[in-house]
Design goal:
By secondary structure, this protein is mainly α. It has eight helices and no strands. Helix 3 packs antiparallel against helix 7.
Length: 144
């Protein structure tokens, strides 16, 4: 009797697997689990900061698993600046500020690739100052 059952499915979709691999590579994490922990931490934090059309559009561009992490969070009525964002994530995990900043940069690099330059610019305009550097961009300034 031959087995024609469906092959074992991966626990995540291919797009999310690629996101995890990008984060693992960019962050130089020793395991996929470490990359996944960083993705969950940082996307949860971003979900508490981002609102409106930018939140909806980013969720639509991310792999479904990442979008669920982002949108499961209730936005904070008082968004944090970039450095406060990193400090908040560090406090939630007990990790050092340097490690948390590294995690944030690795995850935001992958998020930026999915968002594209136009959406990322709109996201950065919505968020308080300090996020551009976390996304690997120069800080945007308002014209006087």
């Amino acid at each position: 009797m031959s087995d024609h059952s469906t092959p074992l499915q991966q626990p995540y979709g291919t797009a999310y697997e690629h996101l995890l691999e990008k984060v693992r590579y960019d962050g130089a994490y020793p395991t996929r689990q470490k990359a996944e922990e960083a993705v969950h931490l940082v996307l949860s934090g971003l979900g508490r900061q981002l609102t409106g059309d930018e939140r909806v559009e980013l969720a639509a561009r991310l792999p479904a698993e990442a979008a669920c992490i982002l949108t499961a969070q209730i936005p904070d009525p008082q968004p944090l600046g970039g450095w406060a964002f990193v400090k908040d994530l560090a406090a939630r995990t007990g990790a050092s500020l340097a490690t948390t900043r590294w995690d944030t940069g690795a995850v935001f690099s992958a998020v930026a690739a999915h968002a594209g330059p136009d959406l990322l610019t709109r996201i950065l305009r919505q968020l308080p100052s300090g996020y551009a550097l976390l996304f690997g961009r120069a800080e945007l300034t308002q014209a006087a």
